Amino acid sequence: MAGLMAGFGHYTHAVVRGIPASLAKEALRSSQAEVDLAQALREHEAYVEVLRTRLGLEVVELPADESLPDCVFVEDAAVVCGDTALITRPGAESRRRETEAMKDALKDLNLNIVEMTDENATLDGGDVLFTGREFFVGLSKRTNQRGAEILADAFKDYAVSTVPVMEGLHLKSFCSMGGPGLIIIGSSEPAQKALKIMQQMSDHRYDKLTVADDLAANCVYMNLPNKGHVLLHCTADQFPESVKVFEKLKDHMLIPVSNTEKVKVDGALTCCSVLINKKANL
Amino acid sequence: MTTEAGSEKAEEVKEKAEESAAQTDQSEKATEETQEVTKAESEVNEKEKEKEKEGKEGKGISRYLPTWLKKQKSQSQTSPTKEAPPAEEPDSKVTQEEEAPAPEVNGHAEEVEEKEEVKSEQVREKEESHSNASADTEPVKEEKVEESAEKSPEETKETTEGEGAEEEKKGQQPEGEAEGGEGGEGQTSIFQSPLRLVRKSKMKLVVCHVTLLDGTDFTCEVEKRAKGQYLFFKMCEHLNLLEKDYFGLTYIDTHEQKCWLDPTKEIKRQIRSNNWQFSFNVKFYPPDPSLLTEDITRYLLCLQLREDVASGRLPCSFVTHALLGSYTLQAEFGDYEPDQPRPLDNIGQLTFAPNQNKEMEEKILELHKSHRGMTPAQADAQFLENAKKLSMYGVDLHHAKDSEGVDIMLGVCANGLLVYKDRLRINRFAWPKILKISYKRNNFYIKIRPGETEQFESTVGFKLQNHRSAKRLWKVCVENHSFFRLNAPEPPNKARFLTLGSKFRYSGRTQAQTRLASSLIDRPAPKFERTSSKRISRSLDGAPMISITEAENGREPHLELHSDSKVKEVDVSPGDAEATSLQSPGPSEADLSQDHDKTQDEVLKHQANISQLKRSFMEAPPPSPPQPNQWEKRLTSSPATTIRIQQQQVTTEVEIEETVVVQEVSRAAKPGLVTVTPIPPAEPTTEQETSKQEVKAEEKVVTVGKEEPKKQESVSSESESEEEAEYHPNVSVSISHTQIPEEKEEEEEQEDDKRGEQEVSAPDALSLPAEVSKPEEEANRVEEDAGAEKKTDAEEKEDERETEESTDDPMITPDEAPNGLTLPEEGETGMSAPAEEEEEPKVNGEASLVEVEQRPQVICCSEPPVVKTEMVTISDTFAAQKTEIATKEVPIVHTETKTITYEAAQLDGNDGEPGVLMTAQTITSESLCTTTTTHITKTLKGGLSETRIEKRIVITGDCDIDHDQALAQAIKEAKEQHPDMSVTRVVVHKETELAEEED
What we know:
The structure holds 2 protein chains of 2 kinds. By secondary structure, chain A is of the alpha/beta class. Chain A has 6 helices and 15 strands. Helix content of chain A is 23%, strand content 25%. In chain A, the strands form 5 sheets. Chain A has a 3-stranded mixed sheet with strand order 2-1-15, with helices on both faces. Chain A has a 3-stranded mixed sheet with strand order 3-4-5, covered by helices on one side. A 3-stranded mixed sheet of chain A has the order 6-7-8, with helices on both faces. The longest helix of chain A is centred in the first third of the chain and has 18 residues, at 37-54. The relative contact order of chain A is 0.18. The mean pLDDT of chain A is 92. Chain B is α+β, with helices and mostly antiparallel strands. In chain B, α10 runs antiparallel to α24 and α27 (739-757) crosses α29. In chain B, β8 (416-421) and β9 form a beta hairpin. In chain B, the strands form 4 sheets. Chain B has a 7-stranded mixed sheet with strand order 15-16-20-13-19-18-17, sandwiched between helices. In chain B, strands 2-1-5-3-4 form a 5-stranded mixed sheet. Helix content of chain B is 37%, strand content 15%. Classes of the chains: A alpha/beta, B alpha+beta. The interface between A and B is large, with 48 and 44 residues.
């Protein structure tokens, strides 16, 4: 009997979106790096391929929208937990319309759609860390208290704790889940501070896996039938020190995924997909 | 009154210290301090039985003496013949008593209240049974002794018994209580009390209505003065519930707040109305219901949770609502039967969720189908498995405001205290993180252990709507902490130093205890009717009434169940007969007595069943907040309500402040420091004995009194009058004045940090978690690395000072922040002491004055320029030195100052020896009075170390404070804290405003 909070990391579907050409020039970014669009497209294709063929997820691929340069980062547009999907209200004005296509796609997947209509609320999915037991919501440039409240309302079963994000774009810019009860965390001071806060706020115990690079701490964890623990993480080329740490995770199927271009526009691995467990429907 | 009573003497102080330490356990249940003081007296009287000439001090002076130093006047009032026609009959006697000793007692309303309490407890106790020599009756028995001297020698025996082994007493508790139950029924036992005979020929019975978790009403009669536990046990009898510690009774108080009925107190005094209406509720939600032993317990928990969920008090998502609802259907109706006329067609009439709709009902039915084959017990278990994961499971919410006045909510739960803003968790304080919980008026404070990056402990304050809410929250915290985190409940007065505030402690069993007890339950799984199906069937006409019984469970074969007589009874008529008879509003006498008899029988049966559990089957006590609906409705109080005017308005009125300084000194032969702590009493004591060290102690009590505002609120109940109280949540923290616990805590903290640091860098990250996680509490380790200790102490002292001086922390109330300035002085005193004893009082005096000035409430300047000073030195007979008393410079005008010094025998003249200061530590805590404890450990010549503890207590209260009590209490507590030390000096300073007229 699939009960409440069972099966963390079980996914059957993934929603992704194409990269618009406008990404290279117009996507929001915190640094002034040049994006190699072709490389970005190649990387994204490889990413989707891993989800689809290697991991066997049913991938729903939304078409890119040139007017939405950041639209490839679907994670920010929706938070899905169980069979409830919260359509967010992204903190960046230019990204608000990204949710439309996302909402339609999730509706088609028969999820219960909750929309964030409050005009005072902002929330980026990248600020939402679901641990399997509770939510942590980063209060960042993109996400505010009201947004977090609405999330708490949408997922009433879970505790929702807020964590101030001092540095970096999103909460998940320096952390992610690496397994049930395992938080992967960057080694920077703000990251460690945030972890402390999370640990303090939680009734549960989490283990942490500290990696040298904050950006490398953003991984995609799944627990799939026949495959067990799966972790998509950065490549050794990009973050050699951090990868050494991942390689100690003997129980995980480790899949390095190259992400050299999207990262220039603050796109991490989790940003590029919304993972859904359709079988979780009770 | 009698010679017996008058026997008081200041004997060997150390001896007494030990005795009182021994008494600590006994007093576990003592609830009010009056009791304790009385007890202290009784100990002196009964144990020492030494005649001692009374000091020639006049009445005025004797007031300020420790009670054990003077005549036991209050006792002499206990004459049953003095009855006067009372306004409120049960209290009359007490009132009488109060009046008589008036000159001594000062007729403080609160005290009267408390004495009543004591008195009534006594009476009650007698009714209950002779063998029920429970600890909390101790003080009362003292009085009984006197009565019995004139009346029944039997009583005396009882008392002596009671004096005996405390352990046994505890063990007897369950029986005692159960017998108490009988006592209520068979009224004969009531009349065993001579008191009773004099007073009344018949005990008044009152009808109680208890709403059960299944929504039915239970009616029973209890004696008017029955305690909460009596009714509660009757309920548990009725429900056939053994694992009762998770449950409690609630009532609606006069302020429309839901409160927990304190089992140890009289019902009548709690409800304060004629509405004897209660409900039976889950008080402590077990974090893992699967660990409960009996299905019936789980079933009751399910009932509570169903209601919590349906009302919205326990928020959950649509899917969870549906899932929980489906388990409820399975448990109540069994398998989904498509063919039968579906009872569930009427599902709409059942409430599963606050915002139930067709869609949800469809979903519930759909899920119900999938539960085919599940037994009711299994369905309940599944229900609980899911419910327990909900984030608000077991969280008791209270409205509050943070330091900036922002509305927040405080949630008390098994793990600690949660802070919510709207629905978001914005902070969390796990129990191990909390050093102290206190409230003062409408403020609620928690003192937080410093994090690894912080240097100092901090105090976080919250404003509650009024002091009642603050107290209610405080009590809930105390109870939850005790229940979930302690191994055994903390004695109410253990090692607490002169506390005039609430002595409230959790009196039931802790979760650890109840689990142990449950594991010993050895009875066939009781069959019970799922009464809510009855309720359901009422609303669902024609629904098949499936009587579901608990035969499954694997443990108990059905046959066996049938062989049980009780079960049969249930079988024959599924509870209906019984229930109805109980529900009938006006039960006939016959019915009742029948009922009573039955209950009595059942009590015995139960007793037999659980005879192995020599533990108190007492259930959880007092007020904690209510359970309205929905997120908002969970709150205990609406913030909108006007805050009551409280005594804060000091402007025109003055305040009494008393200082009691108790100084203790001990010297150990070991170079290592002598830890003055009662906690591991074995250790220091042994050490001392083996090393044949001499122990010298010095104790000073300084009382400085000033006038204080009269409380504007009428002191209506024992609880209302307590404006503040504190609680040290760690197992050891109750004695946080001492050094060891502090250190322990630090270590704990370090461990915490270490744990925090643990990384999964090892290969098998996923398998690691289990191994990695350490048990969260390793609390009670006592480390005795002297060096470390020394360091710690020093640090602590510094911390303390820092903390206190940091005024920029808005959340440290001025009141709470304990007088930073005095501390350095005390430190100095300690260093230069003991040689300069002569001067100490002076220093102390000044120090306390500084304190006075610092306290913002005290408006010193308002006092007119008249000074009357009185000084007295009292030396006990054995005292070698009779010096003392210092002149008090009393800068406060228009006051009367009195200084009384008590000095015990000085064992040797080591005072002047220069020593090396090893540690010095000052800890200040606060309740109604301020306690400043200074530990000074010095190394003297020859490797001896000497520890001197100086305690300064500032008692602030209005003129009605009973100084004797306060002082006696202080001394007693000091002794209890440091049984291995002796009290050498007591200096009392009292300052009162003349106008108010003392005595």
